[in-house]
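Hey, I'm writing a tutorial for new members on how sequence and structure tokens pair up, and I'd like a real worked example in the thread rather than a made-up one. If someone can provide the structure for the chain below, I'll link this post from the tutorial.
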Amino acid sequence: MLFNSFSFLLFYLPAVLAGYFLLGRLGARWSAAWLALASLLFYGCWDWRYLPLLLASIGVNFGAARAIAGAAGAGRKRRLAAAVAANLLLLAYYKYANFFVDTARALGADWPAWSIVLPIGISFFTFTQIAFLVDCYHGQVREFRPVHYVLFVSYFPHLIAGPVLHHKEMMPQFADPRAARPQAGNFAVGLSIFVLGLAKKILIADNLSPLVGPVFAAGAEPPLLEAWIGALAYTFQLYFDFSGYSDMAIGLSRLFGVKLPLNFNSPYRAANIAEFWRRWHMTLSRFLRDYLYIALGGNRGGAARRCRNLMLTMLLGGLWHGAGWTFVVWGGLHGVYLVLHQGWRRLAGARPPGRGGAALTFLAVLLAWVVFRAPDLHTAGNILAALAGANGIGLPHGLAGWAPAFARLGLHPAFDGIRWIDFGAPGVPTLALAAALAFLAPNTQEIFFQYEPSIERIFQRLRWPAFAWHPATAWSLGMAALFVCCLVSMNKVTEFLYFQF
């Protein structure tokens, strides 16, 4: 079941909301239990065979957390190590076993091929529970109510593609009886944010997909213009797909009176790569910082160890996104970027980077996305070479009729008969619109800043007050029209890109 599907919008969501508020009259415990049950049903709709795996993970980790909290001394540490190892082994089996076997076979090992299906959302619910276990070890957990823990792990707005939740932010909200009472303000804000996220996914991200596929096909060798269009299209497709999901998750959760942490904050406007990671997948960045980078030593021990810790953190962060060498290389690239950024800071001091820093950061991120999206490293190398003009300054097949005009200018483009990009489709205009929105328009958090849409309050004012959302007829009509546009465009329901990670 997808957020952008008729079954979710017309059946699941209304039924869950009705049950939540009806049971909320009996108390917050009943509404939380209903929401936990509905979240498990939501997960089971993907593949009921993996529902026992999720339940077993929740049960074992809840028991381990209680055991860790009740232990002392070395026993406490041993229990934490065993529980974390069990989670990592589960994740390694389902997510990385195929990768390790395929790599060994490529190196000549005579091993039989494995075909293990990845349970959706396993990375998110595993990381969420590892953080809970570590906090139990440090004595930071004060609540062990089973229903709230089940809901904390399985809460359906976040379960499939994040954000990565933290218990101290969520469990008090689940216990708050005010959340189980319907409030017009929550519905107005939540539905409006949800519609904006839906529009990002359906009207922008999905329309960019046709520009991406041909360029990133295995073994493709696109000419210069096609390569840049494809790379830019994927850069903005992933941006609006993930931003759309993040908005939809925040909007859906607000309907239940619960705020989620912010996970996306206009990352392509970042002035440097460190700022990019403070704006992109913010809860994952927080997890990697708090539970991996700092655990490795963080900034302690001098510049050399800091660079080592940055590289290890980003390599593991890349591997978290997927079991493949492209993801490892992508993580390594970002590790190198962060190390170079640290070196530049030592040389330049506190001098601001200026606009050139933002342009350079965006270019570095785009080049890394090419590796991230490519099906293999060979194809990634082809596309990166094409971006540098290695395949010639070819033009799309659709512009073949312009060849005489280009020839008079001294240009002789090569047309190989392959129609890479259809310039009559909505993809290229959508790409221009996507770039303008990403770089210039206020983001969702800015538009709704007066109503505190997420847990964090990072905006105090809007650059263009006319774009500040408020309950008004014009905003209602605009959101309704945008929702209708989304509905009529939902002829083909597509998954969110982050579902595969």
